[in-house]
Specification:
Number of domains: 2
CATH architecture of the largest domain: Alpha-Beta Complex
Shape: elongated
CATH class of the largest domain: Alpha Beta
Distance between the termini: 61 Å
Strand order of the largest sheet: 5-1-6
Number of strands: 6
Radius of gyration: 24 Å
Length: 253
Amino acid sequence: MPERGGDFQQVQGAFAAYLRDPRHNPLPPGVPPRRMALYRELFLNNIESFLASGFPVLKSILAGECWQELVEDFFARHRSRTPLFVAIAEEFLAYLRDERGHVPTDPPFLEELAHYEWVELALAVAEGEPPPCDPAFARDPLPCTVRLSELAWPLAYRFPVHRLGPDHQPVAAPEQPTFLVVYRDRDDEVRFLEVNGASYRLLALLEQEGPLPARVCLQRIAEELCHPEPSVVLAYGAELLRDLAERGVVGGG
């Protein structure tokens, strides 16, 4: 019996290797080429369908042969760590980061755009709830403790990923990075908000160290900015926190 099991595993391995990469693996003995081609088409189309639904902007930019080559290379080279279909997008990110390497035809923003599209998908299925509305926080957030929603992710990119598309494909990153917060609101809609560097720093601080007293948090931002009038930062920050709380990005701690 152990020998039969070993034989079956060898056949199964050869079958899978050919399906993944028929150019570099021999056809398994005893299986008609036409049938293997059909199996491969079914598997590959299934993977392509999941990637296309998870990365629609990336597909629209690459299109045609470049997109198909990317899908086939992922299918051939990457070994997923999970059998869950919902995790295919995250596995694709791991492939781009660790295995893809330099391909001259790839746009310079490939990995960042893929990450941004994955964030939208990940937040759509993430467990958790935005913080509830807090009337006291809405009146005056400064005396309150503030926390970042578990469904809000502050992000920094070299490229303006939220504006990329077939008609906008920069060949070099702008001088200034793009700061975004992508979040799921109280209506379960995933949204994004472009913010400036100081607002991003505030959200990153809450992500790393929060919950924090709002006044203390804003005073730290003022010190980091070496702002000559900290009261201006506090006033601006209070309005920002009210707006973010209304959106469900932050809440009282």
